[in-house]
Amino acid sequence: MSGRRLPVIVASATVTMFAWGVVLALAPLLTEWPVVPSSYDVYLLVASPASLLAGSFIMGRFTDAFGRKSGFIVDMVLFAASIPFILFATGPLDLIVGIALAEFSLGGDETTLLAYLAEEAPEAHRGKILVGVTNAANVGALTASAISLVTSFSVGLQRLAFALLLASAVPVIVVTRFMAPESFRWLKYRSGERVSLGRGDYAVRVYLLLTMAITVVLTYALMALVIGPYLFPRLTSLIVFTYNLGESLAGFALLPIIDSTSRRTFPFIAYLGGVITMALFIPQYVVARSSLMAFESLLFLNGVFGEMAWAARVVLEPELFPTRLRATGVGAVRAAAYALYTASIFFTQPFSEFSYLVYNVGLWAVGLSGAALWLARGMDTARRPLEAISDIQVPVRKR
């Protein structure tokens, strides 16, 4: 890969992921704005995962068919169009349309970015680049929570701060995306190569990716956004900030080791840690539910393992699908997880706080089951070219 290609791609992807993190944090924050009646809260919250579902699947298929750069441009236009709807909304319908557009574009964009970065990055640094770029979403969410903390006294000031933040990202995204070249692997393999992977191999891969996605998507910030506000209703912004801080710091800490750690053992450690830290919330809730220090400490630790689980997922997703189906496969796995997340919003409405805790432990166990299967039957993809993982070509017989 040319040395001049990589900085452009990484810059574009990093700014985009930062903007997505801000938008992810916006959905729950917007429910507190006066233009949103409480009767619209559930629609605003559902607009986010439903649009992510559609964006992941539709844009995944689009970018496999028409190229990574084409996907970049379409996503960029949709994201730019969403900003005025969100930040200058006069009613809840404006916000719902804006959130839907933003999540469709940015959710679909992450699918494109993962495929693009995996195809362009040198194998020795592929994990580092994928984790480092996607960690920008955690930094974006952390920044949004910090803005919410310091501007909580004024919705008008909050709007202005978010407007300036998101608007400043657009010029960088526009310039870098027009400068970015097409993926050389997409150009090479788009002709529909045959890939010599058996059904058993794909079944293990899909089970791993699907269970990891279910855990990461359905448990993301659930403790911070559901249990935390119930136990400490006046400290919601601080609780969300703590969780995002744990994830952001863990993302940076992983950069030096992600490419030297086995891709078979790393997911198992991440999801085992997630199960343990989530299970510890149960005795904390029963015995010391009023202890902010105990809750915040467990929340920070769970955020660390949550980031490790996220890292395992964003690295393995684009590695385990062949180039001609890479974005489609990643998008389909994510769409399935977001469909379950959308259903989960309604399914868990009658849950008590204790039921939420047990439910969360069960969701982490789902991811652990996939990680355990991969530990037993998977392959270590670290520092291996994609041609040795997924783009395995076999001769096509001439008719």
Topology of helices and strands:
Blueprint lengths: L4 H26 L10 H26 L1 H20 L4 H29 L5 H25 L4 H25 L4 H6 L9 H21 L2 H10 L4 H19 L10 H24 L3 H28 L6 H22 L5 H25 L22
Helix pairs in contact: 1-4, 1-5, 1-6, 2-3, 2-4, 2-13, 3-4, 3-6, 4-5, 4-12, 4-13, 5-10, 5-12, 8-12, 8-13, 8-14, 9-10, 9-14, 10-12, 11-12, 11-14
Please bin the fraction of helical residues.
over 70%
Radius of gyration: 20 Å
Mean pLDDT: 87
Unreliable stretches:
394-399
Q: Which term fits the overall shape?
A: globular
The N- and C-terminal alpha carbons lie at a distance of 35 Å
Strand proportion, as a percent range, falls in under 5%
Query: What CATH architecture do you see?
Result: Up-down Bundle
How many strand units?
0
**What is the CATH top level name?**
Mainly Alpha
Largest sheet: none
Structural class: mainly alpha
Number of domains: 1
Question: Care to describe what's here?
Answer:
The chain has 399 residues and is mostly helical. The chain has helices spanning 5-30, 41-66, 68-87, 92-120, 126-150, 155-179, 184-189, 199-219, 222-231, 236-254, 265-288, 292-319, 326-347, 353-377. 77% of the residues lie in helices and 0% in strands. The chain has one domain (5-386): Up-down Bundle (Growth Hormone, Chain: A). Helix 1 (5-30) runs antiparallel to helix 4, helix 5 packs antiparallel against helix 10 and helix 9 packs antiparallel against helix 10. The radius of gyration is 20 Å and the shape is globular.
